[in-house]
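Before any further analysis, we paired sequence with C-alpha cells, yielding the entry below:
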Amino acid sequence: MLRSLQCLDCGEVMPLSEHYSCPECGGELRLQYDHAAIRRRGRFARNWQAPADMFTRFGELLPLPSASSAISLGEGNTPLIRAGNLERALGLHELHIKLECCNPTGSFKDRQVSAGISMARHFGRTSLAVTSSGNVGNSLAAYAARSGASAHIWVSKNTPASKRQQIDVYGSRVYEIETGPVDAAADAFNDPYEVAVRELPALCREHGLVPMTSARSVNPFMVEGAKTIAYEICADQGNCPDVVAAPVGGGGLVGGLSEGFRDLREIGLTDRVPRIVAGQPQDHFAGIDVAGDPDCKGARPLDAAWANAAIGNSGGHLHRLTRSEILAAQAELAGKEGIFAEPRGAYALAAFAAEAGAGRIPDDTVAVVIVSGTGLKDMTAAAEFATLHDLARSSTVSSVWESELDPVPESREWHHSEGR
C-alpha cells in the first residue's frame, strides 16, 4: 500500500478510503505515502520532469490511485519565469516567479480542486459543496461542469462581483451569505460567513455532500494538489531553490508546499528543502502564529497550525502585511514584470520584499515567488489599482490619430516606401 490515511490527533492509520476526518476520534487526517517503495520503484523519478499532465507526472505522490480517472482542465505546468527587473530593483542574485495565475480558472486552487473532485468521483460521489471567497468557488464550478457533478457554493456578500459572475457562468448553485466589513478583524470570528466556513463539514454530513474546502482539516485530499507546485519548481530548476515566498490565506498552500518539498527529499530527488517566506494580510484574518489563542481576534485560518509549523521548520518567516505593502507589490509586479496579480496574488512578493529589507536574503540566494491568482479575477480592485497608481490614462480623441506623441526630429525622420 503506497497510500494511507493517518489521524494527526490519535495516530490511527487506515487504508485509503473516503474519510474526511478520523472515524475514531474526529481528528484531522493527512495522507501518508511509502517513500521508500516509491524511491525503489523509480517510476516517479522517471516521470516527474517529463512534459505531461499533473497526475501522470506526479501520480505516485497524489491520492488518486489511477491517473486515467482524473478530472482535469490542464491545471499545473505553469510558467516559472526569471524576474530580471525585480532582481535589479531588489539587488538580488536570482529571482523567479511561479505564475499560478496561468491555471485554467486563474488561480492555484485548480490544482487542489482537481485532486479533490477526482477523489470524490473515485469514491462515487457527485454532489459537492464549498464556502468560498471566490477562487475555490470559481474552480469548483468549472471542474463540476467538466465532470457532470453538482456543486453548491456559498459565497460572502463581499465576494467581488466578477468572481461571483464566473461561478454563475459554469452553472453551479450559488448562495450569498450576509457578512460584515472585510476589515472588521474584531468581529470576523463570529461573522456569518466565517461561521458557515466552520460548519460546512456538518452540513455536508447531513445532506450527503462532499466538502470541497481547500483545508486539510476539512478535506485531506484537496490540499495534496498544492504539493505539485513544489514538484514543478524543483523539476524546472533541477533542485530546490534557497527561498520560496508564498501567500497565506487559509494556510493550505504553505502546508502543501512544505509537504511537497519534503516528499522530494525523502525519495532522493533533492538534497534540501527551501526556507518558506510567507505573507499574510493584517486585516480580517488572525495571524497563523496566534490563531490557536482563544482570545485572538479575526477569522482563524483553518490550516493555521500546519502553515505556521511549516514556516518555522523551514527556518523561514511570516510577514503580516499592510494594505500599502500589498498594493506596492502588486504595482511592482505589473510595472516591472508585466504580471497582473490580484491583491492576494501579490502577498508573496510583498513578504519577500520585507524579508529582503530585513537583510535576510543573502546575495547568492536563488528564490521563487508564487503569484497565486490573476488580477482579472477582481476587476473592481483592478480599477481601484489603476486609479491609485495613476494608470487610468485613456482619453477620447476627435480624429483618428490624435495623440500626445512627439514628432520625430528631422535628423531621425523615417522614410517609408509606398506599397505597390
Observations:
- The chain has a mean pLDDT of 91.
- Residues 80-104+223-385 form a domain with the Rossmann fold fold (CATH 3.40.50.1100).
- The radius of gyration is 23 Å.
- The longest strand covers residues 150-156.
